[in-house]
Amino acid sequence: MMLNKKLVIIGFGGLGKEVHWLATRLGIDVRGFLDDNPDLLGEQFDGSCVIGSIDSWKDYKDCEFIIAIGSPRVRVAIRDKMLIQGAPSFATLVDPTAVVDLKQVSIGEGSLICAGTTCTVQIVIGAHVVINPHCSIAHEVVIKDFVTLAPMVAISGNVYVDSVVELGTGSCVRQGLNLGAGSMLGMGSVLTKDISQSKLFFGNPARYIREWK
């Protein structure tokens, strides 16, 4: 959570701009963006600009950071590189329109819950998780680190989502299922059985397509 610090957003893409929109609505002082595309240096969005590459985070140790990049694997790589270089502090942001009771939902560092999402009871959300707008997460769900839920994902109760999993826009997960680490459920899919590690499933009902690396 933000502790009266400034925020630096890593990534100047669409998600980064959405995080900026959320942070300003929460009254958080956004110091700027970091992005490794040199052509973006100095580019502005809503009063904040790209102030350096990702490696320059060390110049902003008085700030907290959030990795606003949709790909779980890219978020892992950026976090790991930052940890090798030092000890960054990561912010956790929850949109004020999200229905999230922190007595019932635990959220790890660096995670983001966007507008219109509902989380019910006995839910565990790991670190550096991105939950996009209008998702629904039911009771006793575990979401491990570096998971991405695209907009309008619906997860029923007693589901276990392992680390670095991606759930596409509008996909649905039946109750009681397990999604293996590094797996992917495609846009609009309806999952009715477990997914093993690093597999891509797609369709209604969702079926195995190929390995997902």
TrEMBL record:
Q: Which InterPro entries match?
A: AcTrfase_PglD-like, Hexapep_transf_CS, PglD_N, Trans_hexapeptide_repeat, Trimer_LpxA-like_sf
**Which keywords are on file for this protein?**
Repeat, Transferase
Residue ranges of the PglD N-terminal domain? Answer: 6-80
Pfam annotation, one family: PglD_N
> Which Gene3D superfamilies is this protein grouped with?
3.40.50.20, Hexapeptide repeat proteins
Q: What are the transmembrane regions?
A: none
Q: Which family does it belong to?
A: Belongs to the transferase hexapeptide repeat family.
Identify this protein by name.
Answer: Acetyltransferase
The lineage, from the top, is: Bacteria, Pseudomonadati, Pseudomonadota, Gammaproteobacteria, Pseudomonadales
